Amino acid sequence: MYFTKTIFPLALVAAPIFALPVDESSNDLVARANKYTCKPENNESDVKSFTVSEKRAKEQVKVAMFTAGTSGDPHQYGNGDGIKWGVKGCDKKGEKKNQLYEYPIFWDTANMEWKKDELSKTQEKTPLRVVYFEDKGNSNRPKICGVMTHSKVGKNFQGTAFFQKCKD
């Protein structure tokens, strides 16, 4: 009797509150690893597994943003390799497609950063790239798709051939 007179009516009143719409930005939350691990298919370098922390990737994207420097980076990435990022906004096609950008990034133990305002030929080589886009067209809010590596890496870390997605 107590249930039908007190608890049940309270539950009916509270039910619509829990059904309120949620802000769209919270709908795209994805559980992600704290690092990206890259293992190129053909690797002649001394480093067989490249690791990039999510923190480093975010920091480098904020340095890169969307305007190319003297190095020519960042620049647009057309995803000719057909990588499926699995991140909302990164895999769109057609008219709704977001413009992806790529920026060279070094692995954590290299303790180096790409300098966008220095010529590429004067810098150390890295086969890795962080890929991102302007979140909802806001040039102050880049969203990371992931990290990729060239599938072939030379002894001096020069990357060639197609790109492959690093595991996150």
TrEMBL record:
Entry's Gene Ontology molecular function annotations: hydrolase activity; RNA binding; RNA endonuclease activity
Pfam families to which the protein is assigned, alphabetical: Ribonuclease
Assigned keywords, A-Z: Hydrolase, Nuclease, Signal
Leader sequence segment: 1-19
InterPro entries hit by this protein: N1-like, Ribonuclease/ribotoxin
Domain of life of the organism encoding this protein: Eukaryota
Protein name: Uncharacterized protein
Organism: Phaeosphaeria nodorum (strain SN15 / ATCC MYA-4574 / FGSC 10173)
